[in-house]
Amino acid sequence: MKLIAPIIVLLLALTAPAFAQASFDTKARFAILMDEESGTVIFQKDADLPMEPASMAKLMTIAVVFNEVRAGRVKMNDEFFVSEHAWRTGGAASGGSTMFAELNSKISVENLIRSVIIQSGNDAAIVLAEGIAGSETSFAAMMNELAEDIGLEGSVFTNATGLPDPNMHVTARDLADLARYLIHDFPEYYHYFSEPEMEWNGIKQANRNSLVELGIGVDGLKTGHTEAAGYGSVISTDDGGRRLIAVVHGLKSMAERTEEGRKLITWGARAFERVAAYADGAVVAYANVYGGTSGSVGLVGEGEIALYLPRGSRKCLGASVVYTGPLMPPVNAGDKVAELRVFCDEQLVQTAPLFAAETVEQGDIVRRATDALKQLALGWL
């Protein structure tokens, strides 16, 4: 008999004070605000709908390059060749953002990285892709492989630049998770994102992320724009005592992108107070396990789970744990198996991943038969 795994929802009674989400809205069509340390989502607007990434796709290009450097397959002082494809597709003649790399020249990996981050150089991104994988197509396969490893479930990459392609798409949530990955896993390279300018081939260009220069604590990460997608940016700041990551996209102008990004990141830094709901390792709930050595497994956060309460407003907090279950053994400790969802007035305002607290192996035949009868009985109810 084939068992159908339903979506199971566990309602929780939290001991932390209740709250109402502070009033906030944005002109951005897509938006998300995330706590970098915990991954908790504080604000979201169509964060899981597909959207064209534009040059924000270059964050995945940079992630692949950083991985290659960390693995020792690429060195910062390696020099890559500027092909005609890179020069013609991403150079000055293309009309897009460019490093102004000279045809048939060689450029160090470090300077190519700086150009991709600071200047959004399309030519630099293509040179990196060809230097590492031989072609953009092969490099895009590496991008998608890493995206899967990171857990970006709503993204497909087809090139290194973010130039329009109907088959390429991301979500605001995936871009925030990608930014979190870059910040967490490669802190030694994060300083590139806040460099104010870069000069190459006698041409000086300012960091395209104008928020870096506003003095509000923003130190990254990437902007993007196409005619079809509008203007967007991935932003981060540690102002206000914690690091936040924001994504806004689908805006009408550079000025609107700057203002909406500033408003969202400032609101997140100033409007909330942090309240610890569950300590590191504390069990939030239990998920059923079918045919395991134990009939359930504890669910824990990735470290401490914190709630962010709007200052002066503590009303209406509710929460649930959602997972597809029952879980099938083996369930390994550390597996991501559920999600904590926090609501205010029935509106989802925060999410946080939950992980198996311990390993549950497959049970003996008696245990599996007993659980099968339980499932059959539940099916009749």
Automatic annotation (TrEMBL):
Q: Which UniProt keywords apply?
A: Carboxypeptidase, Cell shape, Cell wall biogenesis/degradation, Hydrolase, Peptidoglycan synthesis, Protease, Signal
Q: Which reaction does it catalyse?
A: Preferential cleavage: (Ac)2-L-Lys-D-Ala-|-D-Ala. Also transpeptidation of peptidyl-alanyl moieties that are N-acyl substituents of D-alanine
Pathway, per record: Cell wall biogenesis; peptidoglycan biosynthesis
Entry-linked Gene3D superfamilies = D-Ala-D-Ala carboxypeptidase, C-terminal domain, DD-peptidase/beta-lactamase superfamily
Its EC top class is hydrolase
Q: Which residues form the signal peptide?
A: 1-20
Q: Where is the Peptidase S11 D-Ala-D-Ala carboxypeptidase A C-terminal domain?
A: 272-362
Q: What is its EC number?
A: 3.4.16.4
Pfam families assigned: PBP5_C (PF07943), Peptidase_S11 (PF00768)
Task: Give the molecular function GO annotations.
Answer: carboxypeptidase activity
- According to its UniProt entry, what is the function of this protein? Removes C-terminal D-alanyl residues from sugar-peptide cell wall precursors.
UniProt lists the family membership as follows: Belongs to the peptidase S11 family.
**Under which name does UniProt file this protein?**
serine-type D-Ala-D-Ala carboxypeptidase
- Supply the source organism for this entry: Devosia neptuniae
